[in-house]
Amino acid sequence: MRNKIQDLIIIGAGPIGLACGIEAKKKELNHLIFDKGCLVNSLYRYPMNMTFFSTSDKLEIGGVPFISHNPKPTRSEALEYYRRVTSHWKLPMHLYEKITKVKRKEDFFDVITDKGSYQCKKIVIATGFYDFPYLLDVPGEKLPKVFHYYKEPHPFFGMNVVVVGAANSAVDVALEIYRKGAKSVSMIIREEEIGQNVKYWSKPDIINRIKEGSVKAYFNSQIVQITIDQVRFKTPEGVKTIENDFVLAMTGYQPNFELLESLGVKFHKDEYRTPVYDSNTMHSTSKGVYLAGVVCGGLKTNKWFIENSRDHAPLIIEDIARALSF
């Protein structure tokens, strides 16, 4: 017996996926929201002590006020807020349900998950980018001492830690584990300086810690091998080896290009692999497939944020409602 054909299925239960669900509910469109992890899974995987760059009002969706006790909201406040939003709007969630394949039929999609199959007329991809880290592609990267995500500083107390990268996440990690008692903190950085877009309150902090020697930074450098107790890396002065207990590879993340390609989404011929879409409707080059949020920027993951992509939701749902003659 075939399941009811939904008007749309939203892939990704982050803030923008939720915003799309809210707009769909306003239009009384039948829809489901899927995520292979928990609600706002990317935010959940942020460091426990992370503070947002945006103020709370810029993270609001669905007309639900976001009241923060701080000038900039924290991760825990954001998780509480999006739980409240989901409950308030009674959004139809399918959490911890991974989509394994999407098959296009004549006038609908078959969406196959690890728990069942569903049908829909339209698809919205709001998968973000946080589930697919850039790999170092060096020997030893699969050792249990290597992490591509960071939660909290406690496990690194008294340890020799290498942080790879020079953007916001790398800087935040290096500063926190240094202050929480790591034996040594070394940053291995491909570029010649700390990232230009590092938060204004963190950048002078890390620069001063590097100058005073509290954090050792190796610029224009790149890891070539990780072993159980060492890291070897190439520098302008030659290959160096340092003692090491943990490697935190804060090298950034990328969208799920495999999913986009499987649905027939086309890309601009640029260095960022930016998907092609209509900015007025967020409709991609693939019939019935819409893009929302960070995924719209391709590899340029610092282009779209919650505050400037939450407006994608009404554009998408208006176009879907129009197409379905609602």
Approximate helicity band: 10-25%
Strand proportion: 15-25%
Integer count of domains: 2
CATH top level label of the largest domain:
Alpha Beta
Query: End-to-end span in angstroms?
Result: 27 Å
What is the CATH homology-level superfamily of the largest domain? FAD/NAD(P)-binding domain
CATH topology assignment of the largest domain = FAD/NAD(P)-binding domain
Q: Which value, in Å, is the CA radius of gyration?
A: 21 Å
SSE series = EHEHHEEEEEEHEHEEEEEHEHH
Which CATH architecture of the largest domain? 3-Layer(bba) Sandwich
Largest sheet: 7 strands, mixed
Stretches where pLDDT falls below 50 for ≥5 residues? none
Shape: elongated
Total number of β-strand segments? 15
Structural notes for this entry:
By secondary structure, this protein is of the alpha/beta class. The protein folds into 2 domains: 5-132 and 253-323, FAD/NAD(P)-binding domain (3-Layer(bba) Sandwich); 146-249, 3-Layer(bba) Sandwich (FAD/NAD(P)-binding domain). The protein contains 8 helices and 15 strands. Strands 1, 2, 3, 4, 5, 6 and 15 form a 7-stranded mixed beta sheet that branches. The radius of gyration is 21 Å and the shape is elongated. The model has no long low-confidence stretch (mean pLDDT 95).
